[in-house]
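Long-time lurker. I teach an intro course on protein structure, and each term I like to show students one example going from raw sequence to a predicted 3D structure in token notation. This year I'd like something fresh instead of my usual example. Would anyone be willing to generate the tokens for the chain below so I can use it in lecture? Attribution to the forum is fine with me.
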Amino acid sequence: MNGVALSAVLFRDLRMPVARERLRAESRRERAEMILVRAFFVAVALVVIWQAIVVLFGPPDFILPSPAEVLAALRARPDLLQVDALTTLSETLIGLVAGTALGVGLALAMALLPPTRRVLLPVMVVSQALPVFAIAPLLVLWLGFGLAPKIVMATIAIFFPVASAFHDGLARTDPGLLDLARLYGAGRVRQVFLFRVPAALPSLVTGLRVAAVYAPIAALFGEWVGASSGLGYAMLHANGRAETDVVFAALLLLAAMSIVVRALVDFLTRNLTPWAPESAA
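-- Reply from a regular --
Happy to contribute to a lecture. Here you go:
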């Protein structure tokens, strides 16, 4: 093979990974655009069905307000978006970070020190078995009406799916990789961080996506028990005054917040596992 041909082959081999990565990026972008288009049409369809129910059955406003009345309530209550939604979003994001850190730490502790699994796993299960409304009043009593009890509530709800998914991934590492690590004299710590953690990252991403959905709900539960601001606080007071349009407006903001938090998690974890690309649905 002459020098020109060899250079052409080498150049082709160097371009192939770049081309594959470009195709993957285009595929991810197309999937994201398709998801946005589908979400838009689903939202439009739901609004049309909602408006049709209001027109056909004519329920009182305090039972089912129309979409126009809910939008009017949003415009009439700018504090819902400027104060309450920001409060709930702050509690959600801080709780998501704290719950992720706690879940990852517990999963690593059980992987590094297997005997701790017998102690930590039952505690994790019990923490999820206790009713949320039984814990929330105690947290408000201990921590007050500020952000702290809501953040703790979100952390409690979030850490379990993260810890469970990550620990499951750590426990399912390919035995061949671990045998190779032992062959080269790697201790338990190196086995965990050099082999088991990378292999478990796809499971961690799955746990984070599940946790992102639970985070706003947990913060809302805390606000229902005791708060001075937040979407849960606004919904509670609006429900007592039969302001159903305000309740629906808060629910719409909560739904939008859940979508934004989930999209943020997807964006941050998109390049965390490049060796395990998602197949197109």
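Some talking points for your students: The mean pLDDT is 82. Residues 19-58 form one domain.
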